[in-house]
Amino acid sequence: MTTMDDVVAAETVLSRVDGEGGRLVVHGLDLEDLVAAHGFEATAALLWGAIDPELGDLELGDPELGDAGEVARALGSARARAFARVPAILAATEDLAPIDALRAGIACLAADGDRAAVVLATAAMPVLLAAAFRRDRGLPPVAPDPALGQAADLLRMLDGTPADPGRVRALETYLVTVADHGMNASTFAARVIAATASDPVSAVAGAVGALKGPLHGGAPGPVLDMLDAVGTPANAAAWIAAALDRGERLMGFGHRIYRTRDPRADVLKAALAALGPRDPARTALAEAVERAARDALAVRYPGRRLDTNVEFYTALLLEAVGIDRALFTPMFGVGRVVGWTAHVLEQRATGRLIRPKARYVGPVPAGDTFRAAANG
Ligand code: ACO
């Protein structure tokens, strides 16, 4: 079966995923260095500025030094603009889960020009997510505070009260960690849409749809479901073995590109530790499940190293930050939207229409002699 594994779909200056070495470089910075020196807004400045230094007429300063004040101000005022659309979007998405409300809400946005659309789509993600979450609990939406950063404002819009700095730092580390990751499925979807000369809002709406699937961004909620089902550390090995016998995939393990440990898992594990002492029983359970899963996968697939991926520690970190598991997948989008929009800008600036071929293997007209071929 064709999966495009080895196809190079674009040239990019945004990020490099080294699957053999277990390394992620984001526009010249190792992930660990990016996270240590850049908050969410500085990461947006780094990635957008890599393609379009004039983005939104923002004075980006030197993005590599993390001078992201103008980006923060632009995102803050765009969050307020997005909030003005919230009543109409909530009315139209009443029966939808948060990820679907987000997809629909993004599609309702309109901006004047690509740069404004990039900023608005990025700013709207936390606003729409928080409003949909509160609506499902019978609570009114909380208006954004344009003076805050995206991470702090998201927690505030979810809870209705200011968040403590430790939670903000942990969430911000998460958002930066997932900001960009090569030609992943949702980024590719965004680039395909952008390559038709469609607009950034449409590209982000399509990317949210791609992110939703459990093989991409939908895994962290099921990671916690798995921990709940395992119940105790002593049950981990038997539960994992039974799940694999049933042919199930273990959420939070394996990756198409990494042949070793996903470096994002360790960055998020460190962020979890930095939050301070957690529930010891939960920690012991998570460690037992991770160990049992890695051991069992190594035995079943000796030729294919399947290790912990970003989603396992995403689940544990977001749970510790106090995020409801229904929000895990859309939360991934709140971080990844920076990468999506940077790739959209890059595709528009440097790419051409993406139009691969298909190999036709269906029935042929009577008397025709052609057989399966790559023929568009
Ligand atoms: N649990 C059980 N078996 C697995 C897992 C897993 N997590 N991952 C791979 N395998 C199996 C495959 O079924 C395949 O078996 P087969 O040869 O008998 O068919 C074999 O290992 C090799 O699979 P790969 O080629 O390595 O897997 P692929 O590249 O197709 O899929 C994917 C990668 C989708 C991430 C897969 O590992 C998976 O489903 N993981 C669980 C879901 C998950 O954690 N998703 C988040 C990924 S990270 C991200 O996108 C942000």
Automatic annotation (TrEMBL):
GO terms for cellular component: cytosol. Pathway: Carbohydrate metabolism; tricarboxylic acid cycle; isocitrate from oxaloacetate: step 1/2. It holds the Pfam family Citrate_synt. Keywords: Transferase. GO terms for biological process: carbohydrate metabolic process; tricarboxylic acid cycle. It comes from the Bacteria. PROSITE patterns: CITRATE_SYNTHASE. One of its GO terms (molecular function) is citrate synthase activity. InterPro entries: Citrate_synth-like_lrg_a-sub, Citrate_synth-like_sm_a-sub, Citrate_synthase, Citrate_synthase_AS, Citrate_synthase_bac-typ, Citrate_synthase_sf. Gene3D superfamilies: Citrate Synthase, domain 1, Cytochrome P450-Terp, domain 2. It catalyses: oxaloacetate + acetyl-CoA + H2O = citrate + CoA + H(+). The active site is at 255, 311. Belongs to the citrate synthase family. This is Citrate synthase. It comes from Thalassobaculum fulvum.
